[in-house]
Amino acid sequence: MSTHVRLGVNIDHVATIRNARGGAVPDPVRAAIIAEQSGADGITLHIREDRRHVREDDLFRMVEAVKLPINLEMACAEEMLAIALKVKPHAVCLVPERREERTTEGGLDVAGHHNHVAPFVRQLREAGVRVSLFIDPDVRQMEAAQSLGAPVVEIHTGAYCEAVAEGDQARAARELEAIRVAAKDGAARGLEIHAGHGITYKSVAPIAAVPEVRELNIGHFIIGEAIFVGLPTAIAEMRRHIDLGRSGA
Ligand code: PXP
After folding, report:
1. Which of 8, 39, 189, 241 is deepest in the core (most CB within 10 A)?
2. 136 lines ligand 1 (CB under 6 A)
3. Quick check: is 97 catalytic?
4. Strand, helix or coil at 3?
């Protein structure tokens, strides 16, 4: 089993704070540089249609300033595809997006929207961008991801993390089992397995312990912790929990 689980730090919510007042601070690019210096393995950002957090100029500045792989989350929309093809980040994660949602509420239904998703996967792959599909822990979605030719899937961990946060151990155990089963199925299909959404210090270790998981993308909790302890400490502490989970401690 690969021991190092990569940690992608999502800096969207630094931009959320900036946007609360307009202006230029706090700068999400500065956060990405600090994350790079603090042991992050990648930087993740989500350009939404409504630009509620990062914007194109943040992405352009980010690729100039940061050497780490950049993972751009985006909806299957022509506007976003044009941005991605211009910037050619290391990776694009295709996510569902609804204007009224507070955050990405469920995975992309790649099984139900195969024909809509297919040209996005194809064009990004042709441009040399590593494509991942953000899906629920569901074997049917794994099968569809494989048939779409995406090399990577990111499993939505929101339901599991919510159960952990609510202290509902039975539901957390069921949701974790669904993640385990889906990860195993996906890896057997040749997909690289990532996971993310809603992860905290409390929920991360069992996900990091899933042997097929190679990368975790974590944002809201790390940025929230950073308010109290600073970004380097929050990242180091998350790294410690990931490594503990992976080692089975
Ligand atoms: N992965 C994906 C695909 C996401 O859309 C998000 C939220 O933008 C995350 C991971 C990070 O979730 P959180 O901010 O809850 O850690």
Report:
1. 8
2. no
3. no
4. coil
**Active-site annotation holder among 73, 175, 215, 225:** 73
CA 21 to chain centre: 26
73 is catalytic: yes
Q: Which amino acid is at 16?
A: T
How far apart (Å, rounded) are the C-alpha atoms in residues 18 and 20?
Answer: 5
* Tens digits of pLDDT across the chain (249 residues): 668 999 999 999 999 999 999 999 999 999 999 999 999 999 999 999 999 999 999 999 999 999 999 999 999 999 999 999 999 999 999 999 776 677 777 899 999 999 999 999 999 999 999 999 999 999 999 999 999 999 999 999 999 999 999 999 999 999 999 999 999 999 999 999 999 999 999 999 999 999 999 999 999 999 999 999 999 999 999 999 999 999 997
Q: Does the C-beta of 93 come closer than 6 Å to ligand 1?
A: yes
Q: Closest ligand 1 atom to the C-alpha of 198?
A: 15
Instruction: Answer for the pair 91, 116: CB distance below 8 angstroms, yes or no.
Output: no
What domains sit in the chain, N to C, each tagged with a CATH number? 6-247 (3.20.20.70)
The protein residue whose alpha carbon is closest to atom 12 in ligand 1 is 197
Joined tokens for residue 43:
């930087």
